[in-house]
Amino acid sequence: MSDSPPSAKRQRTEEPTAHEITPIRSKIWMPFGDLVLQVESTQFRVNRDILARHSPVFAGMLSVPQPPDEPTLEGCPIVILSGDSAKDWELLLEALYEPIPLIGYRNKLFNDVERSDDYHVVLHPELKKLLAVGFEKMMTYQLREYEWLENDTIVPSSSCVTLQSCIRRRVHLRRVLTWNKRTANIRFFMLHAWQDDWGQALCNRCAKAFEDTFIASGAKAWEALPAFFGFSGWAELTPPTDS
């Protein structure tokens, strides 16, 4: 009999596979969907036709008959997308199913880009995805960071001298900034420069508070912009200077 101690049981260090993860149902779960996408631990029930219409990659993949032993959920085949982010796919699918923030941008994102010389540039599917996710992140950021337009946090200021008038003006400015009446779309405004006439009809104290907050919010949004499209910051996008 050997005197050596028994070998320790090898601990499992591998990441669980997609089949071993307990899936979570996403809020994107179409009752008449005929395909389930699983990204990380999140599942999305979607429509084949929607995916195929917007993605040549999916159109080609879905045209191939699936093996009979493929896993299904509620009668829908499950397609596992390894290496992708569930959050990115959630944003992309929200864009495909036309949520309010992207209504005004959808055609620009998913159709050909027409140039001035009458040629069309067809965007690569991955670039379309990057743009869709980026725009969705931008609009989500805008709704969150400019919530002060919706309440009394900034206007009226604590030293306001025309309370009701300033409140009415703030409500009017919120409509002007956030809604495009001509196209009936939410307006992307967070990188706009300050316009002096926005302070009109506000008392001097509220006008100053509104202007300072708007400019500071815009500067913060500008610094955050590269991250919406997967970059670490402006330094990554700045070409090196010749020494």
Task: Provide a brief overview of the structure.
With 243 residues, this protein is of the alpha/beta class. Helix content is 40%, strand content 13%. The chain is built from eight helices and nine strands.
Describe this structure in words.
With 243 residues, the protein is of the alpha/beta class. It folds into 2 domains: 24-113, Potassium Channel Kv1.1, Chain A, CATH 3.30.710; 147-228, no CATH class. The chain is 40% helix and 13% strand. The protein contains 8 helices and 9 strands. The protein has helices at residues 48-54, 56-62, 86-96, 106-110, 125-145, 163-178, 204-228, 234-237, and strands at residues 24-29, 35-39, 42-46, 72-73, 76-81, 113-114, 120-121, 179-180, 185-186. The strands form 3 sheets. A 5-stranded mixed β-sheet has the order 1-3-2-5-4. The protein has a two-stranded antiparallel ribbon with strand order 6-7. A hairpin with a 2-residue loop joins strand 2 and strand 3 (42-46). The longest helix is centred in the C-terminal third of the chain and has 25 residues, at 204-228. The radius of gyration is 25 Å and the shape is elongated. The N and C termini lie far apart (72 Å). Residues 1-20 are annotated as: Disordered. Pfam families: BTB. This is BTB domain-containing protein.
